[in-house]
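Q: Please design a sequence for this.
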């Protein structure tokens, strides 16, 4: 049941008419408590959408009782009027919830997230009507509907549940394109009924996103709207150790991150780039990201071509410590490159399936990291050239 799997949470998803298709487009997640602690991680893009600017401020207060999310419009690059629209959404949501919520809710306790086309203001009457409908529809079973309502070019909802010892972490995410750190382009709401304060949640969430969402690099394009929120209700009455909570949140984020890559726009391959033998983790990530963003590598894999020369050329564009004559490269377990030169017969590489693993050994140290990406297909070009219409 995704975000409503932990105790203390209700959710809803409704169709408010923001999408021309008539599909669900407004979601609401409510924390009934007793606690309402929160942490958040946001896009590092200097061009930030109005909901990001608003929610960054809200999260600094350490308390969020509700998250309202819409698809069908990003409310990005819409100026002061767009920010006022976000403020009005929070105020309207707070007022709607205050009539049927155990606590009075203030606008400063409502996070707002939007996703969709950049540069267009939201149809506010429809959105606010959607908030009202979502409020009426709140349910402990409403997680799946909320996950569906935040989809844009996603082909399926993305949800997860991880169980702890007497407590649970749940989550939902959306994202299929414009996927690149930091973070990956996405909206994500994580919930837990564990007892944890804002400082603990912040440490746990940042540790989790660093090795999951920040390692997803589908198309090298960073969004204006990225938001990951972690809400704690404390309803289980259990206070796990920070390490246990971090492990569960990381597992939830990893699951959702893999679902993002699996649903990437036009993708026919799901690619894991594992860099080992690096002098530092930063070097390993830089090398992995360089390969992930290399269009020649991505198109080769779309064509089932284990073109290790393109991989080695991408590695060579980085500032990582390595000797070109010492690098090894394997594709799906076949070491096609040893010591910077041809090795096993590349015809042995089986690329007929969807999953591809590229392993790069730099032979300079003991650090390692993984970055996840996908191939570059005709369908990706078509979808993104036709998206605005």
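A: Design:
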């Amino acid at each position: 049941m995704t975000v409503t799997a932990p105790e203390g949470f209700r959710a809803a998803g409704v169709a408010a008419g923001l999408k021309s298709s008539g599909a669900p487009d407004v979601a609401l997640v409510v924390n009934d408590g007793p606690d309402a602690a929160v942490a958040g991680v946001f896009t590092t893009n200097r061009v930030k959408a109005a909901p990001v600017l608003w929610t960054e401020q809200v999260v600094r207060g350490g308390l969020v009782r509700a998250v309202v999310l819409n698809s069908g419009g990003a409310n990005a690059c819409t100026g002061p009027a767009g920010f006022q629209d976000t403020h009005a959404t929070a105020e309207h949501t707070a007022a709607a919830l205050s009539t049927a919520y155990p606590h009075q809710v203030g606008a400063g306790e409502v996070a707002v997230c939007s996703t969709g086309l950049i540069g267009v203001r939201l149809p506010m009457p429809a959105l606010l009507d959607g908030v009202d409908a979502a409020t009426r529809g709140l349910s402990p079973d409403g997680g799946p509907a909320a996950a569906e309502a935040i989809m844009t070019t996603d082909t399926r909802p993305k949800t997860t549940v991880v169980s702890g010892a007497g407590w649970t972490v749940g989550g939902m995410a959306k994202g299929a394109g414009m996927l690149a750190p930091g973070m990956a382009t996405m909206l994500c709401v994580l919930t837990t009924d564990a007892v944890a304060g804002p400082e603990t949640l912040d440490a746990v969430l940042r540790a989790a996103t660093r090795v999951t969402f920040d390692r997803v690099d589908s198309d090298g394009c960073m969004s204006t709207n990225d938001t990951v929120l972690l809400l704690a209700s404390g309803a289980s009455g259990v206070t796990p150790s920070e390490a246990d909570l971090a492990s569960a949140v990381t597992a939830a984020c990893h699951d959702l991150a893999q679902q993002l890559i699996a649903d990437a726009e036009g993708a026919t391959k799901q690619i894991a780039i594992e860099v080992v033998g690096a002098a530092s983790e930063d070097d390993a990530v830089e090398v992995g990201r360089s390969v992930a963003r290399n269009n020649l590598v991505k198109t080769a894999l779309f064509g089932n071509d284990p073109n290790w020369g393109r991989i080695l050329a991408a590695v060579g564009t980085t500032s990582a410590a390595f000797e070109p004559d010492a690098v090894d490269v394997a594709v799906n377990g076949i070491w096609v490159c040893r010591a910077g030169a041809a090795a096993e017969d590349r015809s042995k590489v089986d690329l007929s399936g969807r999953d591809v693993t590229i392993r790069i050994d730099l032979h300079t140290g003991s650090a390692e990291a993984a970055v996840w990406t996908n191939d570059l297909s005709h369908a990706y070009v078509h979808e993104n050239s036709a998206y605005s219409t």
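Q: Thanks. Anything notable?
A: The chain has a mean pLDDT of 93. The chain is about 30% helix and 25% strand.
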